[in-house]
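Issue 218. Parser rejects a valid record. Input:
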Amino acid sequence: MALALPFRRPARLSPVLPVVAVMALLALPAAPGGEGGAGPADALSALVVLFCAVRLLRARRRPLSRTAAVLLGLPVAGVALAALHAVSPGAGITGLGRYLQVFVLVPAAVLLLIRDRADFRLLAWAFVALAGWQGAVGVHQYLTGTGASYQGRDVRAVGTFGASDVMGMATVVSFGLVCAVGLALGRPAVRERAVAVCCALALAVPLALSFSRGAWIATVVTLTVQLVLAGPRRALKAGAVVVAAGVVLVGGLGVGTAMLQERIDSITQVTDAPDQSVTDRYTMWAAATDMWRDRPLTGVGLKAFPEYRDGHASLALSSGSDTGGAGAAFRRQPLLSPHNMYLLVLSEQGLIGLLCLAGGWLALLVRALRGLWRTRAAGGRGLDCALAACGLLVWQLVDFAYADIGGPATALTAVCFGLIAWWSLCGADQLTPAGAAGAAEHPGHTGRPGYAQRPGSGIPVRRAAQ
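Output the parser choked on:
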């Protein structure tokens, strides 16, 4: 009788590794003085979409459910209509490609490449790792005076994104912090929970040193929501840890510098004594609203805000913002968007575009929250995925009130929406009845009795009779 050799079949590589590669490219230094156009991460994200398409063709299966196709395809209608009356064909094509990349194609590819919650957690930890790297670079910039210029000193932490994209590092660190908190609140394993807590506390330092008020507000709101969703007991424990860490950082280590305190105080002074950046933002918001009034349904066209800005803005608007430091020379950066995603869409795509885009986001939020309640009712397996996905979406929705898409970190925003879409449309449906609790953690489980999936294909096949 032949003896079975004790060799195990090598584990299959996760299909989300190309997505991790996209995130890894964002760890590389950006070109100094870049204009915020497409970068290496954007090019690789296009290859990820192609890789997903080839994988689907080989599997010969329907790529998306009807609900997923509708929710992910909603932005196409508004964007395509706005592209038809753009200021130029080139602007229309460029804008159309950018919106499809960020809100349709890359999210759909990430949704289809994630097999189970293990893949979701791999991407969540990749967010944390990237945030840790960018945050370490940012803290070094602050301590050595090699960051972006802020109040005449090169102390603003911007990571590898440079002075032309001061929001890049703040966005990456915020994503990592939200994922770390979700993993800490939802993971039952003590070791993983401890590592996630340590990562979250460490990422709070570079986020503070980014001097990004919008990222601060979005992160505070998101962490509060995550704590409430996790339950009162965990919320109290996490609140105690945050207070203790704040006392140590501010009182013991002296993190709360005068510039940081002044930046925090300026959040409450945006109406009484706003600085020039706040004045510019209010002026551009008013200009975007005025553009929408002129063309309420369809807007002025994709990438047309700079063309119509001066005709609708008041004299309070400055000619641009000063940037410098972090290896780049001083330059005047033009203000090409209202720094508010909702108003940017409203002005360029009109009410039709905003309803299509924001309507899809709200639908994803409702489904994500419903999946979280189902997860808690089923015993809490996968609660970390639910908290991370809900947190990422809440952060993005809040941050879009102070920022819009643009720069290298936009590729990470597309991956973020892919994680959100997977949990909202697929991940929450992997709940199983009592007695089959472990099945939801493994790929190939369809939830249909008597069926399994052919390895690597995703096609349900009938099991042989027992």
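Fixed in the parser; the record now loads. Confidence is low (pLDDT under 50) at residues 1-10, 432-466.
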